[in-house]
Amino acid sequence: MQKHSEHRRSLGKTVAFVPTMGFLHEGHLSLIREGRQLGDDLIVSIFVNPTQFAPEEDFEAYPRDLDRDLKLAKKEGANVIFTPDEKELYSEGFQTCVHLEKLPNHLCGISRPIFLKGVATVVTKLFNIVKPHVAIFGQKDYQQLIVIRRMVQDLNFDIEIVGFPPVREPDGLAMSSRNSYLTPEQRINALCLYKSLIKAKTLVENGVNDAVKIIGEVSELIRSHQETAIDYIAICDPETLVDMPIIDRPALMALAVVVGKTRLIDNILLNRDSQRLPRRGLG
């Protein structure tokens, strides 16, 4: 993989990279299509990263279908599909991790304390192996995107990070590999995430700027759906992820909800001025 990228870079070609954990859906495919526009060579990795799963989480059960993934990625124009073995990335005696001090202390980092350390570590390794000029990530995993941008800036990676908006089903549910865990009834109840975000957006557009009030109304909406349990609902600064009690500037609303036994996440930008977060940048 390194030799391929070094050769393509020596020819003046731009290398674009889309890292995934496989079980590709339209959300992943949209990232791949974006990558085709941003580079001469498009590399897609497929690797279910064990270091971002706690012992009680769903690493073993995480959906996998490599044959299908290979066909989909090739159809969308991937030049190289990189599928490393776990022992190749984490050899015996492996003991080096990448840890950020502040960003993981919010949102998913509270209930999944090892998750973001595992993400930062594996992405660092993949960057060093694939050697891309540009890497594309989905904004549905917003905290992950911000962590990677911060890491790239702090560690002086010469890589442009592009965030791509969440891709949704026609009814609004954000696409996720874990949606496959949901029963038909749970699938309907899972719509409470998207409904909650739209409710919050409407409240802000109508002049409500009290985060506690908005979170209270959203919590009530979620709890009105069966088989739901709230992990967190936060309104925070889009760059630092620090809670914002009053929405007086661009704010991010992020939430995690367990539907049945499936933990789902989603987010939306709350901004009365209709500004958008930057999609691209080194940091």
Concise overview:
The protein has helices at 2-10, 26-38, 66-75, 86-89, 108-111, 115-130, 142-154, 184-189, 192-205, 211-223, and strands spanning 15-20, 41-46, 80-82, 134-138, 160-164, 228-236, 251-259, 262-270, 280-281. The chain is of the alpha/beta class. The protein has two domains: 2-164, Rossmann fold, CATH 3.40.50; 177-277, 2-Layer Sandwich (Pantoate--beta-alanine Ligase, Chain: A,domain 2).
Largest sheet: 6 strands, mixed
Number of strands: 9
Q: CATH class of the largest domain, anyone?
A: Alpha Beta
Summarize the amount of helix as a percent range.
25-40%
* Number of helices, counting only DSSP H or I runs of 4 residues or more: 10
Average pLDDT figure: 95
How many structurally independent domains? 2
* CATH topology title of the largest domain: Rossmann fold
The CATH architecture of the largest domain is 3-Layer(aba) Sandwich
Q: What is the chain-wise order of helices and strands?
A: HEHEHEHHHEHEHHHEEEE
CATH superfamily membership of the largest domain, which one?
Answer: HUPs
* Beta content: 15-25%
Estimate the global geometry from the Cα principal axes.
globular
Ends apart, CA distance between termini: 25 Å
Q: Give start-end ranges of low-pLDDT stretches.
A: none
Strand arrangement within the widest β-sheet reads 3-2-1-4-5-9
The helix/strand class is alpha/beta
> What Rg do the Cα atoms give?
19 Å
